[in-house]
Write a structure and sequence with these properties.
heterodimer, A: alpha+beta, Four Helix Bundle (Hemerythrin (Met), subunit A), 4 domains, seven-stranded antiparallel beta sheet, globular, B: alpha+beta, Immunoglobulin-like, C8orf32 fold, 2 domains, four-stranded antiparallel beta sheet
Chain lengths: 796, 292
């Protein structure tokens, strides 16, 4: 905008930018000129004044916050969700360079595939002395039960990541191989969306290669391995407490895969099966985000609580394709990097196209001599470590910090346990700090996926950026940041969507099939907790409204409330009672377990209510102030119901959520009426029932006279048209229960459907006189038993 | 020696179980030249919904079962006839204690009987400083690896008291070593930890012991239950030898082998997972008779 430019007479954001001595920089050439590839981005940054830039970048942050992108950080005995630390300035890489990287990594991926096939097959490399036996036999990642098992489809490796750094000579080096269950691909997608929000004007002109094609091809490749029409591709997650659970749920949603935990699965007839509310359904392709040891407590780590007993049996039977094979973690062993260059001619048909960092396994004399000769350049670590270099929890020793005698002693005493690597310097890339670009060290993470056409390489997406100029501070867990990586195409890059053109085979995705029992359980309870929270809010609002109207406090005024408070476990001294906060937390817990099935909008809304309630809790004063705060919460809760019920696909999952809500509403209405319509209830109790039952207007319209027990029971218990009435809930409950799987087999009702039908019939033929206090409590007990039957029928 | 074996394992559950999977390692092993299985049979009550089997990494025969839901008890019965050929030997062809490491360096084998699998700590056998120190002191005079094995076995036998009530199947070896009591599993795992800390590959052996001793010899400890002992690698020439620290003897014709592993976990007679709502209790009995 011309007007803005006129008054922003400022120097370029790169004016003070100075690469570190001897360190190559991605943006700035050694002569101080901006590399041509970066020209448009730098010009764009220069065009924006500080205020405008801040506004643009905040769009990215807003996006990440709204979509709930987080990772979990562990420390000091507890774990917390951290917002995704985005470094807004993308890293730009030339298409030619990217193609070279891809070519080299395809070679490396093939080499690793042949290596692992040998390690779990004939073990020729060890037998012929090309790999030391001790490195394998003593390696906890070498999973003995996998030895001799040929993977279904013939391949061990399907999805890999490589951590790369650019050395002082400008060439790329492999810093680490990630072969077990590489994380971050989903975050790369989020980096991309967030970064394009920040640079929405620039991005279309940059002609950047899209990431979606990579994911689509991999999705299709996995679906091609899925032969049984009853089976769906699944992602196996360790669960919501895992540091990258968000990503597991995100990818499952993005690709239309099931998200499963070990306990959702069992093995029957040599096949892996998922427990669904419709019974056992086969799973033929599983993308594992769980470390190998934990996968089967029967044959691997017996202490695992997150595995599936019999998983190994299914693998032995060849009935399941696993991405990647169990035991693939062994390829992450740091000491193996010492041998890959020597193995490359045999296993990859030629020397490594991209070297890995120089590595020595100190179990042999030549390696020990090399370390002794140049201790200044060497870092020592456990030979079998699989940690990333720069991981702060990595137990490193700088060889130069030891005296020559100490080093000597360490090498001769336990050389076989040690690996030495050359210390690496990384290239730098610009990061924005206080409005100014500064060089920060970076590593690149490149993803490869196996497709029928060979290894596909994700074109960009993920770089780690250090927080300071020191390369050792780079690990994400230590507060580093992540940046998008742009690979601009020379030709026009195709815009890719996840759906294939009409008629293509891969587009005929099956309807969502079996709903995992655990997901159904969580949806049911989510419905119940949200409804319960709403019930507490309604009651508290009625209480504070009366308090405000009378201007007094004290139980003599509001005697009807006490038994209700007791019944619901509420302490009314707090305007926002503990009970409400607990219910919201429980709702978030349930929703957090099914984030792959829960819309991001509804999730944000739920978090928002929880935040508001917690913010209000210590501040709100009883009476009018509280009543208004509670009204605001009630509107937000209604918003969630809207998001869920207007937008959720009407399938089995929605049905369990709905049943949970109806069930809770019926339970609390039965209790409300039993307490407030009791003949011994204090005066005013009936009016209170009408108000908490949200039926003041209806009562006025239907009954001109004052409230009596009969009118209240009629309206709130027996009226099939009142959406707050007990009868209405039971009608809907019966309808939904009848539509559950196996509820009605050729006219024979399931025990659950039978109970719902009886409940419905009894209520439909009842009248206000028959619905005594005792009868209401009895009704409530029968509702509770309905929930028990539902649980044993569908959630076990 | 020809043996007739009978093993019976029972579990009872306080509340009916969910469906479960079990692995059984209770069949005697066929070991060319050492042990010949003439007949073996495993009965499962009630009938499993699935039954299969495989040979695990260490060469052990595994029976794989899927059990139906709703059980309050389950029972596994193994009967077999085994010809045990192994004899104790007095001959010491083992490596010098000093040169075992050099022998190990020459090994480029990852097969089931490679000593390399048995050198490091394993899930149930950590290397502990106090056991290492105990082993070092016990073996100070030993010149050959076989002498080390015998010295440590005798020292553990002297240090520990056999007590079937003192420990459970999951008692850590540090506790049984500190308490100086336990059963064959504790004796063996402590000895394995000690051997490994001396750099001697050591494996865990599960099996049986004859119930009625030969005339004139005392009844051995642990004969009425499943038994365990130690297998140690003594060098390239002599290979493996087996020692029973519970009974302070090298293993010969009185023992019948089921299988080998790094520790108890690799050869546990029953490895299972069931969805349990209440408590469970178990018992097992063994009967071995000679047949001449």
């Amino acid at each position: 905008m011309a007007g803005e430019r006129a008054h922003s007479v400022r120097t370029s954001r790169t004016a003070g930018y100075r690469p570190l001595p001897g360190v190559p920089d991605e943006m700035m050439a050694p002569d101080g000129n901006i590399r041509p590839l970066w020209g448009r981005l730098v010009a764009h940054l220069d065009r924006l004044d500080d205020e405008r830039l801040a506004r643009d970048l905040s769009r990215a942050d807003r996006y990440l916050l709204d979509s709930g992108v987080f990772y979990r950080q562990y420390g000091a005995g507890q774990s917390v969700e951290r917002p995704w630390p985005l470094s807004h300035i993308p890293v730009l890489l030339a298409e030619d360079e990217w193609q070279d990287i891809g070519q080299a990594l395809r070679q490396r991926a093939d080499l690793l595939e042949r290596l692992i096939a040998d390690l779990y097959g004939p073990n020729d490399l060890v037998a012929s002395g090309r790999l030391p036996a001790a490195l394998i036999a003593g390696n906890p990642e070498w999973l003995r039960p996998m030895v001799g098992i040929r993977p279904r489809g013939g391949h061990f490796l399907h999805f890999l990541a490589f951590e790369l750094g650019r050395g002082p000579d400008g060439k790329w080096w492999v810093l680490a191989d990630r072969t077990q269950a590489p994380s971050g691909a989903g975050y790369a997608l989020e980096n991309r969306v967030a970064t394009t929000r920040a640079f929405s004007e620039l991005f279309p002109d940059e002609n950047v290669h899209r990431l979606a094609g990579f994911f689509r091809d991999f999705r299709d490749a996995l679906q091609e391995q899925n032969h049984d029409p009853d089976s769906r591709v699944a992602i196996l997650t360790p669960g919501p407490m895992n540091e990258t659970y968000f990503e597991h749920a995100y990818i499952a949603r993005y690709l239309g895969f099931l998200l499963l935990e070990g306990d959702d699965l069992c093995v029957a007839g040599g096949r892996l099966m998922v427990r669904t509310v419709q019974g056992l359904r086969p799973v033929e392709v599983i993308w594992r985000r769980l470390d190998g040891h934990f996968a089967d407590p029967l044959e691997l780590d017996s202490a695992s609580r997150i595995g599936t007993p019999g998983m190994m049996a299914a693998l032995r039977a060849g009935s399941v394709t696993m991405v990647n094979a169990l035991g693939s973690g062994i390829l992450e062993t740091r000491a193996l990097m010492a041998f890959l260059p020597k193995l490359a001619p045999d296993l990859a048909g030629g020397p490594l196209a991209m070297p890995n960092i120089a590595t020595w396994w100190c179990g042999n004399a030549t390696a020990r001599a090399a370390v002794r000769d140049a201790p200044g350049r060497m870092v020592l670590a456990d030979a079998l470590t699989t940690r990333l270099p720069f991981d702060p929890s990595d137990d490193l020793t700088r060889a130069s910090s030891l005296t020559p005698e100490e080093l000597n002693r360490m090498l001769s005493a336990r050389g076989g346990d040690l690996v030495a690597q050359e210390t690496v310097t990384l290239s730098t890339t610009p990061a924005l700090v206080d409005g100014v670009l500064v060089p920060r060290p970076m590593t690149l993470r490149v993803y490869l996926a196996r497709t029928p056409g060979g290894w596909a390489v994700m074109p960009g997406g993920f770089a780690r950026i250090g927080t300071g100029p020191d390369a050792s501070a780079i690990a994400m867990q230590d507060g580093g940041a992540a940046a998008d990586v742009w690979v601009p195409g020379r030709g026009r890059v195709p815009v890719i969507t996840m759906t294939r053109p009409m008629g293509a085979a891969a587009d005929s995705r099956p309807l969502p099939g079996g709903l995992p029992a655990r997901a159904a359980d969580n949806l049911f309870w989510l419905g119940r907790y949200v409804e319960r929270a709403e019930g507490v809010v309604r009651l508290m609002r009625a209480y504070h409204t009366r308090l405000a109207e009378s201007g007094k406090s004290g139980s003599d005024l509001l005697p009807g409330f006490d038994p209700l408070f007791r019944q619901m476990g509420i302490d009314p001294r707090a305007a926002i009672p503990r009970r409400l906060l607990d219910n919201l937390a429980a709702a978030i817990g349930s929703a957090g377990n099914v984030r792959d099935r829960f819309s991001p909008d509804a999730w944000s809304a739920l978090l928002d209510i929880d935040r508001s309630a917690r913010r209000m809790a210590p501040q709100v004063a009883p009476g009018d102030d509280a009543a208004r705060a509670l009204s605001a919460l009630l509107r937000k809760l209604a918003g969630i119901s809207g998001l869920v019920h207007e937008n959720m696909y009407r399938f089995v999952g929605w049905r369990f959520l709905t049943i949970g809500r109806l069930h809770e509403r019926a339970m609390s209405m039965a209790a409300l009426l039993a307490v407030l319509c009791d003949p011994k209830a204090p005066e005013g109790a009936l009016d209170l029932a009408i108000e908490v039952g949200d039926s003041v207007l209806t009562h006025r319209r239907r009954f001109v006279l004052n409230a009596s027990r009969a009118t209240v029971i009629d309206l709130l218990a027996l009226d099939p048209m009142n959406p707050r009435a007990l009868r209405y809930q039971v009608d809907c409950l019966r309808e939904q229960v009848d539509l559950l799987p196996a509820a009605n087999t050729d006219g024979a009702l399931s025990p659950l459907a039978r109970q719902a039908l009886r409940l419905h019939a009894d209520l439909a033929t009842s009248d206000p006189d028959a619905l005594t206090t005792e009868a209401l409590w009895d009704l409530r007990a029968r509702l509770a038993s309905l929930s028990d039957v539902l649980t044993t029928t569908y959630f076990h | 020696m020809l043996y007739r074996l009978r093993l019976s394992i029972r579990y009872a559950f306080a509340r009916p179980t969910g469906a479960g999977r079990q692995l059984l390692r209770i069949s005697p092993a066929d070991l060319p030249g050492l042990q010949e299985v003439q007949q073996t049979r495993i009965a499962v009550t009630p009938l499993p919904t699935e039954r299969g089997g495989f040979v695990d990494f260490f060469g052990n025969e595994v029976t794989e079962l899927a059990l139906p839901a709703g059980l309050t008890q389950v029972r596994f019965d193994m009967t077999g006839r085994v010809l045990r050929l192994a004899e104790e030997t007095e001959l010491d062809l083992s490596a010098a204690a000093r040169s075992l490491a050099a022998d190990l360096d020459q090994i480029a084998d990852l097969g089931p009987h490679s000593p390399l699998h048995f050198l490091r700590a394993s899930p149930r056998i950590p290397l502990a400083a106090d056991i290492a120190a105990f082993a070092g002191a016990a073996c100070a005079e030993a010149r050959t690896v076989r002498q080390q094995v015998e010295s440590l076995g005798r020292a553990i036998h002297g240090h520990m008291r056999f007590d079937a009530r003192a420990t459970e199947v999951d008692t850590p070896i540090a506790d049984s070593f500190a308490g100086r009591h336990g059963v064959c599993q504790d004796f063996s795992q402590i000895m394995i930890s000690g051997l490994r800390s001396l750099g001697i590959p050591a494996a865990y052996v599960s099996g049986f012991l004859r119930t009625i001793p030969p005339p004139g010899r005392p009844r051995l400890e642990g004969a009425d239950a499943m038994h365990a002992w130690v297998r140690a690698w003594t060098g390239a020439e002599a290979g493996w030898c087996e020692y029973d620290p519970t009974n302070r003897c090298f293993v010969g014709a009185d023992h019948v082998t089921i299988g080998y592993g790094r520790d108890y976990g690799d050869v546990a007679p029953v490895t299972g997972s069931m969805r349990l709502a209440g408590s469970q209790s178990g018992s097992h009995s063994v009967d071995i008779a000679t047949e001449d």
